[in-house]
Design brief:
With 411 residues, the protein is an alpha/beta fold. Helices cover 35% and strands 22% of the residues. It is built from 15 helices and 16 strands. The strands form 2 sheets. Strands 1, 2, 3, 4, 5, 14, 15 and 16 form an 8-stranded mixed beta sheet that branches. The chain has an 8-stranded parallel beta sheet with strand order 6-7-8-9-10-11-12-13. The protein starts with a strand and ends with a strand. It binds N-(iminomethyl)-L-glutamic acid (NIG) and fe (iii) ion. The site of N-(iminomethyl)-L-glutamic acid (NIG) has 12 residues, from α3.
Length: 411
Amino acid sequence: MTTLITNIKELIQVRETNHTLVSGQDMKVLPTIKNAFLLIDHDTIVDYGEMSDSVGLKADNIIDATNKLVLPTWCDSHTHIVYAGNREQEFVDRINGLSYEDIANRGGGILNSAEKLQNTSEDDLYEQSAVRLQNVINLGTGAIEIKSGYGLTVAAELKMLRVIKRLKKNFPVKVKATLLAAHAVPKDFKNNKEAFVDLVINELIPEVSKLQLANYIDVFCEKGYFDLKDTERILECASQFGLVPKIHVNQFNAFGGVALGVKFGALSVDHLEELNNEDIEALKNSRTIPVALPSCSYFLSIPYTPARRLIDAGLPLALATDYNPGSTPSGNMNFVISTACIKMKMTPEEAINAATINGAYAMGISNMYGSITKGKKANVIITKPVPSYNYLPYAFGDNHIDSVIINGQVQ
Ligand code: NIG
Ligand code: FE
């Protein structure tokens, strides 16, 4: 089946050659074609150009995009969408003065979500998560990374990862799975964190690897959670099983997690609300991409990742949602992009690059996703009539999406 989108006001993020990453100054450049067409064959982008070059093109299905923009779907490289229930009471507790740390210290937070998840059946967990995945697809997400980490036992982690596998099978979007092996110290290991790390190394990672349930390994490297030594032990073990790191670092404290990630060849280091010069130096000349999660900063009222320092140092940057019940109960990439522009002083070009091609890089799929390139997957957003792409982040909070095409199919 072929689909031809015609009269596109502006076709955004057109990359002739197969770009897989944009960094530094290049992030300010967002290549586009005005008054364009896009031709899709089955699930693949096969041609595009100016309308004047579309004469004679035929297709089974023609979509008229007069006054509308077409752009690649969002690539959300950091989520925790498989979870049970919610944490709305903790939200109210924070409004009334408790901090995220206070809540975690009294046994809430991640431990609260773990208890809920352990007591939820696999089918129920799947149903709850599927609703969220469908919702973010409707909001323009066409590729997504999903982490485990609310299991905190081998059995519950495997349950989460099987749910991710089922989502991957039943939904058309690209899904990458990450084993967030060490997310919090479980209650039973409260005074024996080492023993929990031993369990991760001796049982969890080998089992997940044997069942081929994860593409990546993650650790919450943070004070009160897992320190550099714990993280190093886990990454060392994971590397023997071929699991590449994508790690949580510098959310509340900067103490060398970035350099550790780079040392282990991390694909991405995520959060970075706290950032020092050593972190920036460690990232230079590496293949590790920093990932910012502005909706998390917004929801927790913590600093925003200093995007300008990273980009102005010549580094790449990706944007993702961090969709999870505790720090970011939202998977809306459109809000992420607006917030990155408004609060992090990223230009619309930088934010769109960060949420498409660089987001794809941050989950290892930018050879097939993240730009309008011949041969890449036909995953595109068609907007409602809008004046320009600047309008997308500018008019924040509105839904500018008319339709979403995944693998060549209108959703
Ligand atoms: O990325 N920081 C660690 N993990 C999540 C939040 C976990 C939670 O509060 O449930 C995050 O923000
Ligand atoms: Fe996260």
